[in-house]
Design goal:
The chain is of the alpha+beta class. The protein folds into two domains: 9-101, Nucleic acid-binding proteins (OB fold (Dihydrolipoamide Acetyltransferase, E2P), Beta Barrel); 127-174 and 209-455, BirA Bifunctional Protein, domain 2, CATH 3.30.930.10. Helices cover 31% and strands 24% of the residues. The strands form three sheets. The protein has an eight-stranded mixed sheet. Helix 5 crosses helix 7 (258-279), helix 5 (131-153) packs across helix 8 (281-290) and helix 7 (258-279) packs antiparallel against helix 9 (295-304). The structure holds 4-amino-1,4-dioxobutan-2-aminium adenosine-5'-monophosphate and magnesium ion. Residues 169-170, 210, 212, 233, 235, 242-243, 246, 248, 250, 391-396, 435-437, 439, 441-442 line the site of 4-amino-1,4-dioxobutan-2-aminium adenosine-5'-monophosphate. 4-amino-1,4-dioxobutan-2-aminium adenosine-5'-monophosphate is lined by residues 169-170, 210, 212, 233, 235, 242-243, 246, 248, 250, 391-396, 435-437, 439, 441-442.
């Protein structure tokens, strides 16, 4: 076959160089046609759109064309011509075809008919070849670029915080343990506790649940930073919004207070949504048609809204009123209760019909590092609540006072001797500061209109699921 430089299908479809010879390579979506002429739709992942290859059957013979079935991989040299059919600008009249790999139709699980998302999860190694997952993973890439661009343009520095850590930032006891101890032969001390001094790090270690504590150290030197990396939580919650391994974006800014933090969160999310509309419209239009008919409308709607800022105490009043008026929730509503997703979504979807930033939560239900309000009861926490998602961001202004922070950590059972380095920032040049964490996959749920978080990460990790 003549060596011609490959053109990506995204560029072929935009090209107006009719009459020239091009090379495309990709995976066959379908082959159909008559005894005289066949049409192969080819996709190479560069765009949701396929290019149509027109094949004169007599030239190659049916035997040659037979193994070119759905899923096969081919390389085609051909002449770019203006398409006769509707909806496409350009198609290719094949001159040379090379078959890289067949995909036996009796074994290849992706056939023309639509498959359920549940089934596709079982073949996560092949699902990126479907239109829906191709679109999702292209959008995932663009959202990562949006995040870096947003912070870079505003003078934030990207900090790499450790994946392996000995401190449980959220104090929720959801850390996966990292050990090289022989589990068949664990040494215990006289109290029956495992002796971690002989473990790899000389102490108990685990996978990070948040990069925040180290992020704060960096913010107290570089001023404004963000982290963006894999995060692990061994919470046994089999919900459509929880993963055991997910990606979190965590900005942290010296001298910011809670109001600045809220504004940053609102600007940041809107920037990401606008970026998706500007860079991923083909894929979003596809998802709007096939997955969620209100997707584009919802994205534009959120861009136009000023997010409501609402203290927790006011939120509880609204929920209590709803209960008094006959609305039923699965979990009880009272001041001090941790809000469940049903409560968050009631506020956002039923009451305000707009994203809500809930602030000033009771200190007992939030983390030890949050700045305490003068009322002695609440902390300067903020959760950003979104339609269809619930909590998309969790953050706070941080307690910068050494005494208050140490005391609150002890009250909450956080072992302060393990975080001496964190407390040191409050001993040496402490300052007000604030930050938050955005769940990357929750943002992707919102931007793609998908309903299950397992469908916006290439290879989901959830309880009892670590395939691929
Ligand atoms: O609210 P969280 O637990 O906050 C923190 O970890 C803080 N240290 C962040 C900070 O202030 N720097 O988690 C932040 C966000 C949540 O709002 C949610 O979007 C996401 O992370 N998240 C999860 N996403 C998927 N699966 C899980 N199991 C998640 N847990 C939290
Ligand atoms: Mg949270």
């Amino acid at each position: 076959m003549e060596a011609i430089k490959r053109t990506k299908i995204v560029d072929v479809l935009k090209s107006k160089a009719f009459g020239t010879t091009v090379n495309v390579k990709g995976w066959v979506r379908t082959r159909r046609g008559s005894k005289q002429v066949n049409f192969i739709t080819l996709n190479d992942g560069s765009t949701i759109h396929n290019v149509q290859i027109v094949v004169d059957v007599e030239t190659w013979g049916e035997e040659f064309l037979k193994p070119i079935t759905t899923g096969a991989c081919i390389s085609v040299n051909g002449i770019l011509v203006e398409s006769q059919g509707q909806g496409q600008e350009a198609e290719i009249q094949a001159r040379e075809i090379q078959l890289y790999g067949t995909a036996d139709s009796s074994a290849y699980p992706l056939q023309k008919k639509g498959h359920s998302f549940e089934f596709l999860r079982e073949i996560a190694h092949l699902r990126p070849r479907t239109n829906t997952f191709g679109a999702i993973f292209r959008i995932r890439h663009h959202m990562a670029i949006a995040i870096h661009t947003f912070f870079h343009d505003r003078g934030f520095f990207y900090v790499h915080t450790p994946v392996i850590t000995a401190s449980d930032c959220e104090g929720a006891g959801q850390m996966f343990q990292v050990t090289t101890l022989n589990l068949y032969d664990l040494k215990k001390n006289e109290k029956g506790a495992i002796d971690y001094s002989t473990d790899f790090f000389g102490k108990q270690a685990g996978l990070t649940v948040s990069g925040q504590l180290e992020g704060e150290l960096a913010a107290m030197a570089l001023g404004a930073i963000y982290t963006f990396g894999p995060t692990f939580r061994a919470e046994n919650s089999n919900t459509p919004r929880h993963l055991a391994e997910f990606w979190m974006v965590e900005p942290e800014v010296a001298f910011n207070e809670i109001a600045d933090n809220m504004q940053l969160a609102e600007d940041f999310i809107k920037y990401c949504i606008q970026w998706a509309l500007d860079h991923c419209m083909d894929d979003i239009q596809f998802l709007n048609k096939m997955v969620d008919k209100e997707l584009i409308e919802r994205l534009n709607f959120v861009l136009k809204q000023d997010f409501i800022r609402l203290p927790y105490t006011e939120g509880i009043k609204i929920l209590e009123e709803a209960v008094a008026n006959g609305h039923t929730f699965e979990y009880p509503v009272f001041w001090g209760a941790d809000l469940a997703s049903e409560h968050e979504r009631y506020l956002v979807e039923n009451h305000f019909k707009c994203p809500v930033i809930l602030t000033d939560y009771p200190k007992e239900i939030k983390s030890f590092y949050m700045k305490q309000n003068d009322d002695g009861k609440t902390v300067r926490a903020m959760d950003v609540l979104f339609p269809k998602i619930g909590e998309i961001i969790g953050g706070s202004q941080r307690e910068e006072d050494f005494e208050k922070l140490s005391l609150h950590a002890k009250e909450m059972g956080v072992p302060t001797k393990d975080i001496w380095w964190y407390l040191d920032t409050r001993r040496f040049g402490t300052a007000p500061h604030a930050g938050f964490g955005l769940g990357f996959e929750r943002l992707l749920l919102f931007v793609t209109g998908m309903a299950n978080i397992r469908d916006v990460i290439p290879f989901p990790r959830t309880p009892n699921n670590c395939e691929f």
